[in-house]
């Protein structure tokens, strides 16, 4: 249940590219964390150029007008190694999918306990037992 | 101060339905957690069909093109019973309000300490005393 | 790396005002927390009048149709004093920048550990050492 919201510049990526972005985010969980492919819950939000601001060089990056902010609601139980794996994999796969620079992808992993997710029917399906994902 | 952001498919729900969705989310706090009706802070975001992806069957659901993701900034002090109550009530009331399937509502409860909210004037009004909501 | 998402009423603020809002949010970190000016990662989202709901009077405010919800992904290590400083500074500077009422600014500070941010290249740049920001 990591849930993505990718905030991208408006009118920059085609519909096909946005679908490829969603596939890349899904695959980052599969390849980076061994999560089932069906666990695919993704939002993309477009922002006009007066609505999305990423400093062009902060922390030694060379950001372009492709730059985006990706938030991930990630299981709060994830250790540092998992966080590194998912950030690295998101970056690599989104770069491949969209042809953007690795410097253009800002990621924030927001910790949320697994027991706080409802996949439907109003139930908190992961409230019982050890975390699976 | 639970704050909602409902991410829904674009051009799927009428303006009247979006207002009914907001009312349902507000009532989920009133009925599910005994929160005052005035505590009503709600965002709705529309996403095109190339911007919102929920797997059609993951975790045993039958999701349709009505499927939505609702995030809730919820007091971090809430015990499991409150989480279950609010998820169940959101689902029931949104199903009633929009006529969608119970399987179409994905919910993520993001824990935020009460002391982290400002209702206006730049003050953190809930920083003192025991949590009320 | 506090990251902002300002949810504002659609067609209410000009492009120039939205840029001034972003500047005010950036300056709230500089002036309120001593964070470097280059740490500027900001999203603005517009919502139609059937998509953004803030109760007009809850908690003793007089909210208008300018009312907005600002979320901030803030370092989870921040003590209460820092939270108060940033909320106060956001409110003051946004009021100055947009000419809105202090009552019209709702803020939620969402705690995120510093180690959970990637500024680019898929690395978690703040994972090592004591929190700087």
UniProtKB/TrEMBL annotation, chains A, B, C:
SUPFAM superfamilies, sorted: Tautomerase/MIF (SSF55331)
Signal sequence interval, chain numbering: none
Coiled coil: none
Stored Pfam families: Tautomerase_2
PANTHER family from the UniProt entry: TAUTOMERASE YOLI-RELATED
Name by which UniProt lists this protein: Tautomerase
Native species: Streptomyces glomeratus
């Amino acid at each position: 249940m990591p849930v993505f919201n990718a905030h991208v510049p408006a009118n920059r990526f085609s519909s096909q590219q946005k679908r490829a972005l969603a596939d890349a985010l899904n695959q980052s969980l599969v390849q980076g964390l061994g999560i089932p492919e069906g666990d695919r819950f993704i939002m993309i939000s477009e922002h006009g150029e007066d609505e999305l601001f990423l400093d062009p060089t902060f922390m030694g990056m060379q950001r372009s007008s492709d730059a985006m902010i990706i938030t991930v609601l990630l299981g709060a139980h994830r250790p540092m190694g998992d966080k590194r794996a998912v950030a690295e994999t998101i970056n690599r796969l989104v770069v491949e999918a969209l042809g953007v620079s690795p410097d253009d992808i800002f990621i924030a992993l927001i910790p949320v306990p697994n027991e706080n997710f409802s996949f439907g029917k109003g139930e908190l399906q992961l409230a019982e037992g050890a975390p699976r994902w």
